[in-house]
Design a protein that fits this description.
The chain has about 300 residues and is mostly helical. The protein contains 18 helices and no strands. Bound molecules: fe (ii) ion (2 copies).
Length: about 300
C-alpha cells in the first residue's frame, strides 16, 4: 500500500464509528485456547448471552454438526457436539453476523455474509489438501477467522463512503473489471485495505490483517502470510466457479497454476475438491441463516 493510499484511508475511514464485536467473542476465544478450561466453563460463558445460546443450540442441532444423533437441549451438549476448538469459530461467526445487517442500496449484505462464511469454511477445508512440506504449518482457526472478515471492508465502504462506493459498483459493472482495481481509481484504496484496518482495530493478529489485505493481490504478501493468502485466493476462485459471491467482487475467472504447485495441492484432484467446496457452500448458506436466528429461552 502506498503512503498516499494509507493517508487517504486513515483520513476518510472513521474507525471509531465501526461497531465493536460482542465481548463474548474474545472472552470465549481466550477460554478455549486455555488447555485447562472445561466444557462447563465455556457453556457457562455462552449461557450468559441468551441470543448466543439460542444460536449455538440451533447450529449444534443443524445438519452441519448433527449428522445422525439425537437433538441436544443443553448448551454443554451443544459445545461437546460442535467441538471445543470449533466453538470459538462458531461464536465469532455469530458475533460477526451482526456486522452484516442493516440497509444497503449497493450490496446485498446477506449474500456477502454467506460469501464470507463460504470462504471461511472453504479455506479451512483447503488446508487439509495442502502439503505442509511446501507450505509450512497453517493455522486453521486463523484462516477461518480471516475468511469471515476478508470482505468486511465492503460493508464499511458501503456505510461510510456511499456515494463513491455506488460509483465503484457502477463502474465495475460497466467495465467488467475487478472491483478492487476500480476502488483504487475512484476511492484511492481498496476494500481489502479497509478490512485489514478493521481487523487491526478489533485486535486480531497482524498476520490475519495482512492476509486479508492481500487477498486480491497475493503477489504483495510477505513469505509468512503467503500460504494463507494463496488459500484464500483459491477458495474465492473455487466458490466463484460455483457462483458464490461472483456478483459482489467480479473475481478473476482464472487461477494461476502456480498456486496449486506452491500449496502442494494436486491439480488432478480439482473435481473432488470442487465437490467438497460445493458441500461447504451449502453449509455456509445454512449457517448464515442460523447465525441470525432470533433468541428464545434455552436451558443452560
Ligand atoms: Fe474481496
Ligand atoms: Fe471475497
Amino acid at each position: 500500500m502506498t503512503m498516499n493510499a494509507l493517508a487517504k484511508l486513515n483520513e476518510s475511514i472513521k474507525i471509531e464509528s465501526i461497531p465493536s464485536l460482542p465481548s463474548y467473542v474474545l472472552e470465549i476465544a481466550r477460554e478455549v485456547e486455555d488447555t485447562d478450561t472445561s466444557t462447563n466453563k465455556v457453556a457457562g460463558l455462552i449461557s450468559q448471552d441468551i441470543g448466543l445460546s439460542a444460536r449455538i443450540l440451533k447450529l449444534a442441532n443443524s445438519p452441519i454438526y448433527a449428522r445422525s444423533t439425537k437433538p441436544t437441549a443443553s448448551i454443554k451438549g451443544a459445545v461437546e457436539r460442535v467441538g471445543f476448538a470449533e466453538t470459538k469459530n462458531v461464536c465469532l461467526s455469530i458475533g460477526l453476523s451482526e456486522q452484516f445487517t442493516g440497509s444497503s442500496h449497493t450490496i446485498d449484505l446477506f449474500k456477502l455474509w454467506e460469501h464470507s462464511l463460504a470462504i471461511a469454511m472453504g479455506s479451512q477445508l483447503l488446508v487439509s489438501y495442502t502439503n505442509p512440506e511446501k507450505t509450512g504449518p497453517i493455522n486453521k482457526d486463523l484462516i477461518y477467522s480471516t475468511g469471515l472478515m476478508h470482505d468486511i471492508g465492503l460493508v464499511v465502504l458501503d456505510q461510510q463512503q456511499p456515494a463513491l462506493f455506488r460509483e465503484v459498483k457502477a463502474e465495475t459493472a460497466a467495465s467488467e473489471r475487478p472491483c478492487w482495481e476500480v476502488e483504487y481509481e475512484i476511492i484511492g484504496y481498496s476494500h481489502a485495505d479497509v478490512s485489514a484496518l478493521v481487523m487491526r482495530h478489533w485486535g486480531f493478529p497482524s498476520l490475519m490483517a495482512e492476509v486479508a489485505q492481500c487477498h486480491h493481490e497475493y503477489e504483495l504478501s510477505t513469505p509468512k502470510a503467503r500460504p494463507s493468502t494463496l488459500i484464500l485466493r483459491m477458495a474465492e476462485y473455487l466458490c466463484h466457479t460455483k457462483k458464490m459471491g461472483d456478483q459482489l467482487e467480479l473475481i478473476e475467472q482464472k487461477l494461476d497454476p502456480m498456486i496449486w504447485r506452491e500449496l502442494g495441492i494436486d491439480k488432478t484432484r480439482e473435481d473432488e475438491i470442487t465437490e467438497a467446496i460445493v458441500e461447504k457452500i451449502s453449509e455456509a448458506e445454512l449457517m448464515a441463516m442460523l447465525c441470525r436466528t432470533s433468541a428464545t429461552k434455552v436451558p443452560a
